[in-house]
Design brief:
single chain; alpha/beta; TIM Barrel; globular; binds D-xylitol-5-phosphate; binds zinc ion
């Protein structure tokens, strides 16, 4: 299981310190939410900020693109230091070309599904993916309530991955905390994003430890 705290809930005026705090607290990845005000009704940050952050941490960068036609910016994000690049299947015209672009830039490709998008949508691409992201809230904002009705989708994708003998990861993102962690792991998720749950704690090692202990007891 990998834990990827989302810096969306951090203090952006102290971004380097915030990332250092989760690194010291035992995070495996850092989840960076990129929003364009088009695909989702919110704006966050882009490649220049990611580039500045890269030298401040050894954590791999898990970049979640919530932008229209992501293929246009893959090179920029790869050059800025992205390790995993996740894009939304609903936002890309040519899914294969987008996956190819991520791979050719030396990054690990992942596809994300909004709550209304069914599991089957990702099956044609699943063999080539490092990870599938199942959104457990509508993308756009941190601090929303976890959608437990996404659990059958996580299970369906896990079963398909196992049936094909793949080692593709399943990430969940939105409303994950010390309670909801149990059901996501039980249904087959193994990369856990948590924003407000991690960053609202003064000591980030406490929520990270809780997620790891509760999650790993179900693996
Ligand atoms: C929402 C983002 C999430 C968000 C999660 O669009 O993709 O990564 O930061 O925040 P929490 O954990 O607070 O729901
Ligand atoms: Zn995210």
């Amino acid at each position: 299981m990998l834990i990827s705290p989302s810096i969306l809930a951090s203090d952006f005026s102290r971004l380097a310190d915030e990332v250092k705090s989760i690194e010291n607290a035992g995070a495996d990845l850092v989840h960076i939410d990129v929003m364009d005000g088009m695909f989702v009704p919110n704006l966050t940050l882009g490649a220049p900020v990611i580039k500045c952050l890269k030298s401040k941490t050894a954590l791999p960068f898990d970049v979640h693109l919530m932008i229209e036609e992501p293929v246009r910016y893959i090179e920029d994000f790869a050059a800025a230091g992205a390790d995993i690049i996740t894009f939304h299947i609903e936002a890309a015209k040519d899914i294969d070309a987008t996956v190819n672009k991520i791979i050719s830039c030396g990054c690990k490709p992942a596809i994300s599904l909004k709550p209304a998008t069914p599991a089957e949508a990702v099956f044609p691409y699943i063999d080539r993916l490092y990870m599938v992201l199942v959104m457990t809230v509508e993308p756009g904002f941190g601090g929303q309530s976890f959608m437990a009705d996404m659990m059958p989708k996580v299970k369906e994708i896990r079963e398909e991955i196992n049936r094909r003998g793949l080692d593709t990861h399943i990430q969940v993102d939105g409303g994950i905390d010390g309670n909801t962690i149990t059901q996501v792991v039980k249904n087959g998720a193994d990369v856990i994003v948590a924003g407000s749950y991690v960053f609202k704690a003064a000591d980030r090692s406490v929520p990270i430890k809780t997620l790891r202990e509760k999650g790993e007891s179900y693996e």
